Amino acid sequence: MIIGGACVAASTGQTLDVVSPIDGQTIADLPNASEEDVHAAVAASRSAFDNGVWARMAPAARKRVLLTWADLIEKHALELAVLGVRDNGTELSMALKAEPMSAANTIRYYAEAIDKIYGEIAPTDPSTLALIHKEPVGVVGAIVPWNFPLMITAWKIAPALAVGNSVVLKPSEVASLSVLRIVALALEAGLPEGVLNVVTGEGPIVGRALATSMDVDALVFTGSGRVGRKLMEYAAQSNLKRVFLELGGKSPHIVFDDTQDLDQAAQSVVAGIFRNSGQVCIAGSRLLVQDSIHDAFVDKIVALTQEMRVGDPLDMNTQIGAVSSAEHLERVLATLEGVESIETGGKPMLQETGGSYMQPTIVTDMSADDPLVRDEVFGPVLTVSRFTDEADAVTQANNNELGLASGVWTSNLGRAHRMISGLRAGVVHVNTYGGADNTVPLGGFKQSGNGHDKSLHAIDKFINKKTAWIKL
Ligand code: NAD
């Protein structure tokens, strides 16, 4: 772990085994931090914040450090991607772009924004001057998941650091290795000691200690709704720190019979659920197909799915890598117990490797309130349902407690706009799926969360607005 600029073990000496889902081998051990270690990391962050070594550094100088850090991440991209893939099983072809390169570009985006953020002068009575200062909130806790550890870490910590905060970062116990490495690279780039600390270990101990700390000012989180709920409780039980949650999804992908290119739609549907073994927050896991084309479209996606190459994620030809851990594979398989209408897949595979692999799976004819259709599986499982018309599509799509992303295929422009306004989801894709750019916010509606990552809007989470009244 890195606390106060030093590379340290857990104070108790405890470790966790890091088991690769590629072959079930133990590849490293990880410090299993205690509450005391978290307190030490928070204290290091607080001290770095209070002494102003980063918070009061000229914005242009902070920018130079962050740009150097991004360059170092890019220089080490292959090493970082391989480290992450050995840890969490994402296919390397995707991880190279989506992990180190995405993280480097996110850090650059916020580095470049630093010296373009202005305060305000309020239009008050001319006898007073009212200034609105934007100040960093102080110490930010960031808790991240295992599915895209570098990309999501950068979404959280790049805007936080850019505006002068100090950070304590807690990666998932299932994917900490590449995150530890980029924090070491931040020090190499010149980030002052104590500004960015990373503690590894178990969520209920390390994450909880961070969330209940009286000295953490804001908490940003990506992960499950189950843990997100707890974090709000922890904040209420401690110092009412602000809590921003990016949670799961059960995103509807809707195909109308007027779609211009059904082959392209089928490819997008399949990629939109099965990349990274379905372990993608915005995965289009609920397919809704208009009655008139339902059977033919299911035939298309089943054929495409059966052609997908599942295997060693370090092979650049692999299209679907490993499920992140043996325990997670078991959880995903359990969601299919008793399900009869499996069109393809449904079974573990490549067991002789010792790794955790699963056939991409398509299930039809489930009722709308079946847990498989209702709840996030976070694995390579797609459910398919039918709809009659636009109104039915919107009703079925919105019939879920989650509202992260959605997709619509149609050649009717009016219908596309009506669907964009009717769908209760933070992201609506039209005739495409899974687009991403640092300039565009990502955040969920309903129980998919209450914050936004990415874009300049994300900076608001890490700023206090201070008003100053001056009598003239
Ligand atoms: P998770 O909620 O199990 O764990 C996330 C993090 O929380 C980990 O670092 C974990 O150690 C920590 N944690 C666990 N218990 C804790 C506790 N009691 N107190 C504090 N911290 C605790 O999620 P996961 O399995 O790592 O990730 C998968 C989930 O993340 C899915 O639901 C997925 O949809 C979601 N996700 C959302 C987005 C988004 O942008 N909305 C992006 C990626 C993933």
Task: Spell out the blueprint of helices and strands.
Blueprint: E1 2-3, E2 6-7, E3 15-19, E4 26-31, H1 35-50, H2 59-75, H3 77-88, H4 92-113, E5 120-122, E6 128-136, E7 139-143, H5 149-162, E8 166-170, H6 177-188, E9 196-198, H7 203-212, E10 218-222, H8 225-237, E11 242-246, E12 252-255, H9 262-274, E13 286-290, H10 294-306, H11 326-334, E14 342-344, E15 348-349, E16 357-358, E17 361-364, H12 371-374, E18 381-387, H13 390-398, E19 402-403, E20 405-409, H14 413-422, E21 427-430, E22 445-446, E23 463-471
Nicotinamide-adenine-dinucleotide (NAD) binds at residues 143-147, 152, 170, 172-173, 203-204, 207-208, 211, 222-224, 227, 230, 246-249, 281, 376, 378, 404, 442, 444, 449.
The CATH topology of the largest domain turns out to be Aldehyde Dehydrogenase, Chain A, domain 1
Structural class: alpha/beta
Question: Care to count the β-strands?
Answer: 23
Bound molecules: nicotinamide-adenine-dinucleotide
Please describe the biggest sheet, giving its number of strands, its sense, and whether it closes into a barrel. Answer: 7 strands, mixed
The total number of structural domains is: 2
CATH fourth-tier homologous superfamily of the largest domain: Aldehyde Dehydrogenase, Chain A, domain 1
**Distance N to C terminus:** 52 Å
